[in-house]
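Help wanted!
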Amino acid sequence: MSTIFDRHVTVSDGCLLPKQDVPEQGLKKLIPSSLQRSSPPRIPQLSEPELARHYTRLSKLNYGIDDGLYPLGSCTMKYNPKVNEDLARLPGFALAHPKAEEGLVQGSLHLLYEVSHILSRMAGLDAVTLQPAAGAHGELTGMFLLRRYFEKRGEPQRKRILLPDSAHGTNPASANTAGFSVVQLPSNEKGMVDLAALKGELDSNLAGIMLTVPNTLGIFEEEILSVTELVHEAGGLCYFDGANLNAFLGRARPGDMGADVFHFNFHKTLSTPHGGGGPGAGPVAVSGKLSDLLPVPRIKKEGEKYRLDWDFPDSIGSMHPFYGNFGVLLKAYVYVLLLGDAGLRAVSENAVLNANYLQTRLKETFTLPYDRLCKHEFVLSGAEIGPGIKTLDIAKRLIDYGFHPPTIYFPLIVQEALMIEPTECEGRDTLDRFVEAMERIAAEAGETPEQLHTAPQRAPVHRLDETRAARQPVLTYPFDAER
Amino acid sequence: MQYVTNTKKDREQMLAALGLNSIEGLFSDIPRPIKEKFQGLELSEKSELEVVSALKRLEAQNANWENMTSFLGGGIYDHYIPSIVSHLISRSEFYTAYTPYQPEISQGTLTAMFEFQTMICELTGMEIANASLYDGATALAEAVIMAERIVGMGRMAVARSLVPDFRRVLDTYCGAAGIDVVEVPYTGRGQLDLRAIPADISALAIQSPNAFGVIEDPTQLDLGDGLLIVVANPISLGILAPPGELGADVVVGEGQPLGLPASFGGPLLGFFATHRRWLRKVPGRISGRTVDRDGKEGYVMAFQTREQHIRRERATSNICTNSALCALAATIYIASLGAEGLGELARLNLEKAHYLADRICSLPGYKLAFQAPFFNEFTIHVPVDPHRIRDSLKQAGFLVTDPGELEALGMQEALRFAVTEKRTREQLDSLVEKLGGIK
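Answered by r_m:
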């Protein structure tokens, strides 16, 4: 793929910048020579048409939601409403500086206040911080809150966090960053938390449990109330990862399941775009006993005025330099206003219906290790579908059929996992076409396995050599190398 | 609901295919007591038109920025954003794509990440860069955590002249990671006090230009095994020496000045660059060049074995989603200027700031707080209560940072002004005129 650095178009006089209108003193006088740049950065000089074509060409090498089905399990790749984008760009919001006086940003503060209020009600919990910039950042915030909570209670020895073996990788990484040790809990034969194993881990060093509900197999923990009650009785707290909130939006609340801390993933549940890897937003809701520990500043309403409140001496500090990813928070607010309660219910209804429909149709061809009612997603196994065929081959072949592959090799407890989440946005026709493609791939696996091994054929590049990328790392443009 | 495609008939047929006779059957696994406690938001469905109007009403509660002249800075700056940036990042193939786990259909994102990494290395003078972190403050926190992993002293030093927004986040992360933070004072020139740097530290973090706008000179530093982390303003690097050439081991910073609107402080863009030898310790995504099986060049996410989805609790960081679209915006912004444009932009900022500083200092009682080089932001000692000045300026449509921020750093009776290429001489002169009238 050619990069901007491969282009050698030179334009002499750009008109992007205004002419200098103050008397110049010169670099020499203003900056000591030892602190001046001695040679310019190697960045090409392109005309605007060249630039527009380069990035338009790059965009066409991508696959976005507007291109088609994006059934990435646990990633909830739903449609991103266009109106969100327009409203985030309204100049009154986009140009607001975070250090502008409170009186000048009442609209922004009001919006953030409303978002907190909505999230608190959605979670069924008492207080919310909007600071976390993504789901994993929300997890880290939650783990910092747990740490502070036990320090305040004089129980700093509570350092063990229990994690089901189906947990997302950010969970153990977040717990570890906050100084907790991770204890893995095995799942039972139904794919749920094994209560007996849980009971064996409850002691005075327990800080809590991190749960994803429904879990990454797409299964709702039927014993969720017993799980949270047991952890609470042992003096621990319950952290809920909100990655899978789409499954029960408008029908149930984590607070009513026993959650003490819950993080939202806005680019999953609340329709904000993923951006190819961010920016996201991962607000965290907490129960009353943790609310004084939330990051500062918090947004407070006094009469008709909104202000920043720094006066929480027990707070963990700040997770973000300002108030969170305002632009992303705004988009989610727009989405919730558009949907209302009925629309939110329609989300979980269609997300779960679509997932169960796909599960039922695909289990005729593929192995379904946990065969039961699923929520918004389910996990197939690609093992034994054909000689020498791996899940990776199935995923790559789906690209040839015009679909984005599902999440693969996760959760770790399913061999050759294919984790499929259609979301509420897809219609039955699309689901049927996906089933047809999967069935044809299964047939090819037996008849013409080479077609799978060499897939994708119809992508801009064929299968890429990831080992080479690690063994001979080229991480910046090789200006000096022979090309 | 307009984002759902299934019709009522589709739903009935799909339910029948599942052997269910009601939607509620899909949720029979959620325990009844949980469902019974459910309360909604008490919000009715609204049309797009109604929501647009509601948001515009909220927007109108903010100031009309067109009528304001901003001298706000401290990490977030009012730079001009060329139209092409928002047009290109608005292509839905970019903004609606997921993290590029499937490289064959993500070459657009991966190539742009590779370009971004290259540009950050060119600006900072470092060998490798990641594809972004959430913001400059968390990038600094991640740098400190990496330094602690490499050096392992259990404590780090930080310049007191770091902007407080960064400091709060750094303290929060270090507190939870069990890293002690020692503060290093500034001299009468507003620069790091080299004599006050403690021994046995994993890292020293400085910011240049710092919270007073002063450019630091790290060339005389000797930290032993400790790493030098420099927080840099990327626009300044159009003319200032890359920190990598001045001895930095890690260069981080806030990328908002590179084509992102202030957006009330988010989304932002953290950049992170360091030496090649620490490649495997770096947090976050990295795009790497490779070839496909026909030998055709392409890009993949490299060194995923550092990351949480593979390494779990032993990952270099818990970061997953970062700030990819903002990094794309920055890449396009930098490309739209080119090397010459970046230099010219930095000179516009530098000269305008110095013009304003000189003009202000010609007023009786006003003087530069520090006799040290600065870029596009500077701190002025003022002869009247700075809070009163700020209020008077606001009435006249001029925005400056709360003097409380400088007071917290030990600077009384002072105000800070940031000047970008957007400020015209006329605006600068009228600010000075207004200041002169405040008694």
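OP: Thanks! One thing I noticed: Chain A has 15 helices and twelve strands.
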